[in-house]
Amino acid sequence: MDELYSLENAQKFNWSSVNGNLNPERVSHLEKYLIGKKILDAGCGGGAYVEFLAQKGLEITGVDKYTQFLQLAKEEGRIGTYVQEDITSLPFPDKAFECTYCFDVLEHVNDMLAIQELARVTTKRLIIAVPKEDEIMNKFNLTFLHYQDKTHLRNYTESSLRKLLSGIDCCNIRIFPELAIPTRNLVRQVIQLDVDSFTKKYMKSSLAKIKLKQIVGFGASKSQSLYQEFYDFLTNELLDKASYQDIPTGLVAVVDLASL
User: Fold this and answer.
1) pLDDT interval class at 11 (50, 70, 90)
2) What's the CATH superfamily of 2-181+246-257?
3) I need a labelling partner for 108 at 20 to 30 A (CA). Which of 29, 234, 237, 243 fits?
4) pLDDT for the residue 91
5) Phi/psi class of residue 219: alpha, beta or left (left: φ > 0; alpha: ψ in -120 to 50)?
6) 166: exposed, middle or buried (C-beta count within 10 Å: 0-12, 13-18, 19+)?
7) What is the end-to-end Cα distance of the chain in Å, rounded?
């Protein structure tokens, strides 16, 4: 399994801590929920988020098990303190950090041991992000790249994540979905209709006739390009007025510890 934790695999599955392309949603979580000044990034990868927070003046320590990721952080000159260690056995004393965040790591390890260690070394808050169990696309025998990562041992439902977190001493747990698939864009990509048959079918409607006259002009020739414009109008009308179900691929838990 360890051989799968490579820079190549990290790039393939877009691990933002490695490639440096910080996910805006994850940045928002940090800006909204981080508390305190002494912070732990548990499973820091290549250190991109460590550097982001260090630049804000926080006392940030990144921990990762794998040499190649920490070496990348060094080569890229990403500021911050880095420690090579497994997050299921951290080398820090109790309550060493005020806040710990752990993005996309628990699904790779013994999550019960890891969450207990994170709680042990933290005084105020944990911010946990994990992949959400796919409950929608599986119905159609489809999957997304996110779920093909063979380093994942498990995905989570809100119930299973809450059960995991119930094993630590905390006073409040907030769980919400994240990283939703842009279903509107997905639908636009997969819909394929024949322009001629589509437009001619809807020519009988009064709205269609009015719009086609607006596009073509009275007495103008109905060319293929104009039918294409009319087709675009109708599909936009249909798709823009439709409602789309969010398909989140992740869950975030903000855990206030009992010592807060």
Assistant:
1) confident
2) Vaccinia Virus protein VP39 (3.40.50.150)
3) 29
4) 98
5) left
6) exposed
7) 37
Q: Going by C-beta distance under 8 Å and a sequence separation of 6 or more, which residues neighbour residue 96?
A: 38, 40, 121, 122
Q: What is the DSSP string of 234-257?
A: HHHHHHHHS----EEEEEEEEEEE
CA distance 81 to 192: 52
- Cβ pair 94, 120 in contact under 8 A: yes
Residue 94, both tokens:
């109790």
Cα–Cα distance between 34 and 98 in angstroms, integer?
A: 9
pLDDT tens track for 70-96: 999 999 999 999 999 999 999 999 999
Q: How far apart are CA 110 and CA 87, in angstroms?
A: 9
The 10s digit of each residue's pLDDT in 197-218 is 655 565 555 555 565 566 555 4
Look up residue 112 and give its two tokens. Answer: 């019960």
Categorize the per-residue pLDDT at 34 as very low, low, confident or very high, splitting at 50, 70 and 90.
Answer: very high
Task: Give the count of beta carbons closer than 10 Å to the beta carbon of residue 25.
Answer: 13
Residues 157/132, Cβ–Cβ less than 8 Å: yes
Bridge partners of 81, per DSSP, are 61
Structural domain boundaries in the chain: 2-181+246-257, 185-241
42 in Cβ contact with 115 (< 8 Å):
no
Whole-model pTM?
Answer: 0.81
